[in-house]
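Notes from the 1:1 (GR / supervisor)

We went over the backlog. Supervisor wanted to see one worked example end to end before approving the batch request, so GR pasted a single chain during the call. The sequence is below; no edits were made to it. Supervisor asked that the structure be written out right there so they could see what the output format looks like.
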Amino acid sequence: MEAPMCPQEASELSSLKPKLEELGVPLYAVVKENIGAEIQNFKPHFAGEIFLDDQRRFYGPRVRKMGFMGFLRTGVWKNGFRAFRRGFLGNVYGEGFVLGGVFVIGPGQQGILLEHREKEFGDKVNILAVLRTARKIGVE
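Structure output shown during the call:
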């Protein structure tokens, strides 16, 4: 299941692609499932390469989920309506309770330089923080 917030955040991250390319930093997405044409439908919103992790190895030993009660949170509804107003729609297929995240990962020993894990659906990363962190890659 793809929440409407996923394509919206992907689109915002994709707006950084020209600056990331200047810095030599690639843009990747890791998705957990591909039901129907889900990845094909996601591609117009994401300017980088998309990898399918159907065994969820990238998600670590403990997949972070928000249960059904999470839909009662006002923040989730606000984020959903914000995405809907901007024309981003999701789908209702698949497993939709896994929380996402954004990572900026440097080469070798640099490792994870920025880690944003959703606390609730639609909890977006600060785009400027992503760009600031990407500028640190290879510098430290």
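Supervisor's comment: Residues 21 and 27 are 9 Å apart (CA to CA).
Batch request approved.
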